[in-house]
């Protein structure tokens, strides 16, 4: 049976972490920004911190055996509860409805980047920084942060890691102790974020914007403090910095750790997934640039390549930043960008999408199937990085790719039933399922035109996409609750 009491109490650390976040924002507002939000943030911070510690208190000093089903329920509930509790500042300061506020918060936490805001410039700096920071907090995963901080969760920590970490190969870890692995990953994450902030600052951003955008660039989230996104700055240097760190955010963070520890850049080129990812970026950039040149979209080849490269990286990394009005591009280029969102980044990164490794394995399985037709009695072994891939992983990849197609269509139809046209509905689902952000059609500017029912569908879609389908969908099966 599900250990419901244990699961509910283990929500405590995440709620407390949200409380600490609010207290930090209140402090920064009191010291730097002075936009009179510190009272609300401090009251919420104290309330959430006390509530989190209260839930956690009975568990101290005891051994707890968290089973796989408990871990999946805990991870799903954590994201839902934090999205709802984290929505309060948007209700208080922005006068958003609870539905829209939860959508905005879930979009931030899952690093989707879709928004219901119609105008964000001029909003209180503390609220905007909170909006940026929740993307960073959700980039590597809320639960993974808890596992890194609290050794109490070492029992069952690997199960939590598997339930939340993206990618098909979930047994890979950097240390025998999962808490150490979590700390290593968060150490790399913090290092890249600080490096990104300094690079943005050096490229011309003020310090506030530099840190705000570093949170959402490394997290491949895409929220910005300006309505025009990075296009507001109209700076080649800033776009190049964003390109570099969106790519780094899309590469396996375990690979970053190994490269930093060994001081060897060759580590990246030896990794097949990274090589394929960079190859897809290069080919897609040339194809998109070719389409734009045929259309005569921009005055020069350099400008065309600049915007093509930026938007290709933005979409394949599922960041969703904009440097130009890409919604006015030719239909073929727009479709290509949407498909790049489905391709996604590498496993173990902050990027969404189906992940490059799954596409590699799908291609290998397809090739093996063709060979089997020619040589019916041949023994086929699928290898990745020169090692045989277990059938269990291959099976999970097949099912995942199947659900990627089916869920996109089913959820798009559900949205169309709320009144959206096909282009708007499908692009909205693609944006939320791949935690990408930008949509097209009536949701091209923002998601405010979506009805309340449609908004809740998209909230669930973002959660399903961020936790890669199975962790959430298994909760809707009888067998999960029966035994």
Descriptive notes:
The protein has 483 residues and is an all-alpha fold. Helices cover 66% and strands 1% of the residues. The chain has 23 helices and 2 strands. It has a two-stranded antiparallel sheet. The N and C termini lie close together (5 Å). The model has no long low-confidence stretch (mean pLDDT 88).
Please give a handful of descriptors for the protein shown.
mainly alpha; 483 residues; two-stranded antiparallel ribbon
What string gives the helices and strands in order?
Answer: HHHHHHHHHHHHHHHHHHEEHHHHH
- Order of the strands making up the biggest sheet: 1-2
* Structural class designation: mainly alpha
Write down how many β-strands occur, each being a DSSP E stretch of 2 or more residues.
2
Low-confidence stretches: none
Which word captures the global form? Answer: globular
Largest sheet: 2 strands, antiparallel
Distance between the termini: 5 Å
> How many helical elements?
23
The average pLDDT value, as a whole number, equals: 88
What does the radius of gyration come to?
22 Å
Q: Helicity, in percent?
A: 55-70%
Q: What proportion strand? A: under 5%
What does the secondary structure layout of this molecule look like, with pairings?
Layout: H1 4-9, H2 12-33, H3 38-56, H4 68-86, H5 88-94, H6 98-109, H7 125-139, H8 142-149, H9 157-164, H10 178-203, H11 207-218, H12 236-249, H13 253-262, H14 266-270, H15 272-295, H16 301-316, H17 331-343, H18 356-374, E1 383-384, E2 387-388, H19 391-416, H20 422-433, H21 452-466, H22 470-473, H23 478-482
Antiparallel strand pairs: 1-2
Helix pairs in contact: 2-3, 2-7, 4-6, 4-9, 5-6, 6-7, 6-21, 7-11, 8-10, 10-11, 10-12, 10-13, 12-16, 15-16, 15-17, 16-17, 18-19, 19-20, 20-21
């Amino acid at each position: 049976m599900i250990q419901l009491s244990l699961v509910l109490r283990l929500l405590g650390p995440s709620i407390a972490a949200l409380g600490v976040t609010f207290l930090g924002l209140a402090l920064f507002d009191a010291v730097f920004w002075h936009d009179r939000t510190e009272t609300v943030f401090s009251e919420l911070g104290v309330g959430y911190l006390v509530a989190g510690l209260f839930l956690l208190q009975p568990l101290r000093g005891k051994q707890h055996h968290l089973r796989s089903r408990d871990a999946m329920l805990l991870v799903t509930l954590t994201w839902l509860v934090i999205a709802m509790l984290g929505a309060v500042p948007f209700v208080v300061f922005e006068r958003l409805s609870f539905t829209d506020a939860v959508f905005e918060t879930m979009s931030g936490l899952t690093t989707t980047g879709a928004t219901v805001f119609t105008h964000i410039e001029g909003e209180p700096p503390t609220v905007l920084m909170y909006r940026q920071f929740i993307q960073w907090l959700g980039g590597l995963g809320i639960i993974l942060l808890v596992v890194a901080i609290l050794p109490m969760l070492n029992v069952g920590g690997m199960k939590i890691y598997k339930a939340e970490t993206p990618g098909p190969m979930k047994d890979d870890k950097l240390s025998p102790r999962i808490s150490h692995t979590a700390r290593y990953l968060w150490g790399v994450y913090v290092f890249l974020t600080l490096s990104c902030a300094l690079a943005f600052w050096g490229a011309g951003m003020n310090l506030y914007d530099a840190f705000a955008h570093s949170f959402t660039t490394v997290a491949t989230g895409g929220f910005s403090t300006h309505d025009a996104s990075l296009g507001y700055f109209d700076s080649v240097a800033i776009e190049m910095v964003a390109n570099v760190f969106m790519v780094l955010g899309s590469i396996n963070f375990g690979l970053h750790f190994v490269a930093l520890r060994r001081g060897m850049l060759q580590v990246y080129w030896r990794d097949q997934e990274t090589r394929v990812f960079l190859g897809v970026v290069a080919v897609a950039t040339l194809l998109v640039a070719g389409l734009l040149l045929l259309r005569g979209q921009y005055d020069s080849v350099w400008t065309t390549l600049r915007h093509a490269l930026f938007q290709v990286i933005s979409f394949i990394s599922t960041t969703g930043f904009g440097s130009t009005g890409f919604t006015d591009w030719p239909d073929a280029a727009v479709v290509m960008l949407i498909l790049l969102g489905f391709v996604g980044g590498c496993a173990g990164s902050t990027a969404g999408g189906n992940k490059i490794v799954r596409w590699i394995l799908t291609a290998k399985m397809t090739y093996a199937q063709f060979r089997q037709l020619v040589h019916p009695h041949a023994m086929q072994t699928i290898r990745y990085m020169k090692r045989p891939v277990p059938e269990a992983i291959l099976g999970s990849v097949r099912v995942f790719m199947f659900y990627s197609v089916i869920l996109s269509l089913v959820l798009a139809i559900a949205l169309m039933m709320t009144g959206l046209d096909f282009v708007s509905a499908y692009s909205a689902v693609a944006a939320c399922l791949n935690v990408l952000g930008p949509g097209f059609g009536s949701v091209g500017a923002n998601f405010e035109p979506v009805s309340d029912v449609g908004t809740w569908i998209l909230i669930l879609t973002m959660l399903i996409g961020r936790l890669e389908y199975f962790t959430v969908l298994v909760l809707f099966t009888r067998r999960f609750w029966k035994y």
